[in-house]
């Protein structure tokens, strides 16, 4: 556990996650607090804040302190704040959040960060799990790391967009959206420019194939790499409470919304922060 002035950073696991105490997110962040949170995010990859009774405007203001807002291309939005994506679910199984993924990697420059807060929770369930892509990479064999070093993968909006349209979470025509957001290639292994650590950068929602491999090779390798993130050694789990917020570095972290509350309503609001093309 470490602290900076009144800020307390309490690690959740050895590989990922920390709870932050001593910050009131209703107030603008001064430079010292901002620097402490950036450092904690770099060290722990996902930060959890408790007892934060903030408004949508304050949610946005907190996110804007860390960069320009990246508006999600599809999905329901807040009626007064179109920068905020609203995740309102009653029957969540199979809708996509219950799959290990990184947010919006179909974009040429996926978001740097995502900040999620709860509006309405089921009586039980609805936890979110987070996994470290850097820990997942470190656990690969040296031979696999070497093989993947120069590989690139295609990230495609198509499958998740079709699912969103089917369940009524998106009303735009598929052909129009797919034309605006064509598939993009990203490295299979990315590098943190600050620490030099490597990250396994494929996920089940958006990654469609590894470039240069045959269909049969992709059928064998890509599912294995996507499944690799499911190792509990790389993970932490957040049990939501009223006033809880999670802020994760979308470059290195995947997440999974546990869909164990069917028939009850769970409402979350998410803001994403613009990023750069993965390298």
TrEMBL record:
Cited PANTHER family: ALPHA-KETOGLUTARATE-DEPENDENT SULFONATE DIOXYGENASE
One GO term describing the cellular component: cytoplasm
Domain TauD/TfdA-like: start-end pairs: 9-272
Lineage of the organism: unclassified sequences, metagenomes, ecological metagenomes
Keywords associated with the record: Dioxygenase, Iron, Metal-binding, Oxidoreductase
One example GO MF annotation: metal ion binding
One of the GO biological process terms: sulfur compound metabolic process
Pfam families assigned: TauD
Family to which the UniProt record says this protein belongs: Belongs to the TfdA dioxygenase family.
Protein name: Unannotated protein
């Amino acid at each position: 556990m470490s602290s900076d002035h009144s800020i307390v950073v309490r690690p959740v696991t050895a590989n990922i996650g920390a709870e932050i105490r001593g910050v009131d997110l209703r107030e603008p962040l001064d430079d010292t607090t901002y620097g402490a949170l950036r450092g904690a995010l770099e060290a722990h990859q996902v930060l959890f804040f408790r007892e934060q009774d903030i408004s949508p405007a304050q949610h946005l203001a907190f996110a804007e302190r860390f960069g320009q807002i990246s508006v999600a291309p599809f999905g329901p939005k807040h009626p007064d704040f179109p920068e905020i994506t609203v995740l309102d679910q009653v029957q969540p199984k199979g809708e996509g959040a219950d799959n290990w993924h990184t947010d919006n990697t179909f974009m040429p420059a996926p978001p740097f960060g995502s900040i999620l807060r709860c509006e309405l929770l089921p009586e039980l369930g609805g936890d979110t799990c987070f996994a470290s892509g850097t820990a997942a990479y470190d656990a690969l064999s040296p031979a696999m790391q070497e093989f993947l070093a120069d590989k690139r993968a295609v990230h495609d909006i198509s499958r998740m967009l079709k699912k969103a349209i089917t369940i009524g979470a998106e009303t735009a025509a598929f052909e129009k959206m797919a034309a605006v957001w064509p598939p993009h290639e990203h490295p299979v292994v990315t590098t943190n420019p600050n620490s030099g650590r490597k990250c396994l950068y494929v996920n089940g929602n958006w990654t469609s194939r590894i470039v240069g491999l045959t269909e049969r090779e992709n059928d064998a390798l890509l599912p294995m790499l996507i499944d690799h993130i499911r190792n509990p050694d790389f993970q932490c789990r957040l049990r939501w409470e009223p006033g809880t917020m999670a802020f994760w570095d979308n470059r290195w972290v995947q997440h999974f919304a546990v869909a164990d509350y069917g028939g009850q309503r769970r409402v979350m609001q998410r803001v994403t922060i613009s990023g750069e093309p993965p390298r």
